[in-house]
Amino acid sequence: xxxxxxxxxxxxxxxxxxxxxxxxxxxxxxxxxxxxxxxxxxxxxxxxxxxxxxxxxxxxxxxxxxxxxxxxxxxxxxxxxxxxxxxxxxxxxxxxxxxxxxxxxxxx
Length: 108
Description:
By secondary structure, the chain is mainly beta. The chain has one domain. Helix content is 11%, strand content 44%. The protein has one helix and seven strands. The strands form two sheets. The chain has a four-stranded antiparallel sheet, with helices on one face. The protein is elongated.
């Protein structure tokens, strides 16, 4: 993750945010998250990290938070498979996931 500042040469307008770098063996993607989305992103991560099977009477669930740039955080639970998994997806990159016992544990 890196801080990002973008400036328009013609208007001197500046935008702030973060760049989330997601890398694999043969690929690299960069998701830009606007400053105004940082609080909702952190709240989404917190909410997804607190997901339990109590959110539904059904045998499974999927909950997600997506930024304007398409960075997607997902919590997936299936009682038959056991555990709740969290995912990080962006663009057409493969998904990163991890099994968690407490909190949002995606590998980035």
